[in-house]
Write a structure and sequence with these properties.
Shape: globular
Order of helices and strands: HHEHEHEHEHEEHEHEHHHHEHHEEHH
Largest sheet: 11 strands, mixed
Radius of gyration: 21 Å
Number of helices: 16
Helix content: 25-40%
Number of strands: 11
Distance between the termini: 13 Å
Strand order of the largest sheet: 1-3-2-4-6-5-10-11-9-7-8
CATH architecture: Alpha-Beta Complex
Strand content: 5-15%
Structural class: alpha/beta
Length: 488
């Protein structure tokens, strides 16, 4: 049962071949066996999972199942879950139990999913390897003995899904935090159009960039999860009133005479990537051409500045959002000699090094001396990047590019903060522009590890983005069954 995709499991649940309780127990047993080694969950909810499964079985028996009834998932521990600890992987919120449900997690409840637990992540979603988590880093199940990164910030979700400790899961993508970990764990990671999925009840990092999205083993599965997540939310002022529903299996967008202009970004041509990534990218481009796609070179002139823009805008918004953690209302409190001393001691103890670094950077760029020089200039370049994407989509229908430069690195890699930040080079521009992008397994490197490619589209063109991703998925044929990956 562990190797079933969500699509396959739903067919078996509807036919009565398996029950939701059996499916859930299989995943709980696997979590018990491999969870400690992978460290992909912060909080497990086995009693809730079995209760959810029993309710799903009752609906199947009555003939009125919900869209995702009985599917066991992991919920990134950034989404508030009523009565269940929600930590954001931080000491600051280590014991925080919300009395409300995030919109995204409520939508999954309404769709009938089974909650296995809250998955690990970088503290407040700030990082690339999930190493900044107060609870330790999750481990990539590919070549487990090497202790490779599962990526960040949604590394706990990708580790869980790739290892069969969940059938799918949620992530948030602020600068690539769904797509990069998905690419190095052989999964599909979808960053929807900004506003398609509500941020209400999701612990905020950078409000104009944070984008909830799904992680799954196949594009069809990701589309099913996105259908459950998407929808207008009056509680979120940035939520878009744009209907979205994926009709799965996704229809081909190429072949049988269908024409499509697929763009490749000129400015990425001279960016250093691994020989394996170049080989696989070129092979998938040739595959798309064989189906009738016209490959068009497009220019996004400021795309190589996106990294600098992101690391001004995101810390600035983080500095503002994280000001609320002061020890006064909820979360950690370390008493000082007076109010200011309590603030200082609470925030010094509650936030890890990377979070403190980004708060300091953000506070600095928002200061009166730096605001025009750094923040406003970054905002101007952000607009140039978004406008350049608009112009590029006048020349092509969709864009493809690598998800990252290479395969997963060891967790103990000795990288500087700037080297970690540079790993986001291929992903941050899409967040700055608010456009949809999907990372899909594109092939295996010579060392046997997976590599991902992105498909990118106009705002609210999420369906077509996934349709093109499905073609790449079919050509690549990466076997990402959990028992294949782990050999057990």
């Amino acid at each position: 049962m562990i190797d079933l995709t969500i699509t396959e499991a739903l067919e078996k649940l509807k036919s009565g071949d398996i029950s939701a309780t059996e499916l859930t127990r299989a995943h709980l047993e696997r979590i018990e066996k491999y969870g400690p080694e992978l460290n992909c969950y912060i909080t497990l909810t086995p009693e809730r999972a079995l209760s959810d499964a029993a309710a799903a079985d009752a609906r199947y028996a009555a003939g009125n199942p919900l869209p995702l009834d009985g599917i066991p998932i992991g919920m990134k521990d950034l989404f508030a879950t009523r009565g269940i600890r929600t930590t954001a992987a931080s000491h600051m919120l280590e014991n925080f139990v919300p009395q409300y449900e995030s919109t995204v997690s409520q939508k999954f409840i309404d769709a009938g999913t089974v909650l296995l637990g809250k998955t690990n992540l970088d503290e407040f979603a700030m990082g690339t390897f999930s190493k900044t988590s107060y609870f330790g880093a999750p481990v990539n199940p590919w070549q487990l003995e090497r202790k490779l990164t599962a990526g960040g910030s949604s590394g706990g979700t990708t580790s869980a899904v790739a290892s069969g400790l969940a059938m799918g899961g949620t992530g948030t993508d602020t600068g690539g935090s769904i797509r990069f970990p998905a690419s190095i764990t052989g999964l599909v990671g979808m960053k929807p159009t900004y506003g398609l999925c509500s941020r209400w009840g999701c612990v905020a990092f950078a409000s104009s960039l944070d984008t909830p999205g799904p992680v799954a083993r196949t594009v069809d599965d990701a589309a099913l999860l996105l259908s459950a997540m998407a929808g207008h939310d009056p509680k979120d002022s940035t939520s878009a009133d744009a209907g979205f529903h994926a009709h799965t299996p996704l229809e081909p967008i190429l072949g049988d005479g269908k024409k499509l202009r697929v763009g490749v970004i000129k400015e990425f041509a001279n960016v250093e990537i691994s020989p394996d990534m170049k080989r696989i990218f070129d092979a998938r481009i040739a595959d798309l051409k064989s189906l009738g796609a016209e490959i068009v070179e497009v220019s996004i002139p400021n795309i190589l500045d996106a990294l600098a823009v992101y690391y001004v805008v995101a810390p600035a918004e983080a500095s503002s959002n994280l000001a609320r953690y002061d020890g006064m209302r909820y979360g950690l409190r370390v008493d000082g000699t007076d109010l200011i001393d309590t603030y200082k001691k609470t925030r010094a103890a509650g936030f890890g090094t990377e979070v403190q670094r980004r708060i300091l950077i953000g506070t600095a760029v928002l200061s009166s001396e730096s605001y025009d020089v750094y923040f406003m200039q970054a905002a101007r370049v952000r607009r140039l990047i978004a406008d350049a994407f608009d112009r590029a989509f006048e020349q092509c229908d969709l864009i493809v590019c690598p998800s990252g430069a290479g395969t997963a690195l060891p967790l103990d890699s000795d990288l500087t903060p700037l080297e970690y930040y540079a790993l986001d080079l291929f992903t941050v521009a899409m967040n700055l522009a608010g456009i949809p992008a999907c990372s899909v397994p594109a092939g295996l490197a010579t060392n046997g590890l997976p590599l991902g490619m992105q498909t990118v589209g106009r705002k609210f063109d999420d369906m077509r983005v996934m349709q093109l991703a499905k073609h790449i998925e079919q050509f690549a044929g990466v076997d990402n069954r959990p028992t294949k990956i782990m050999g057990k």
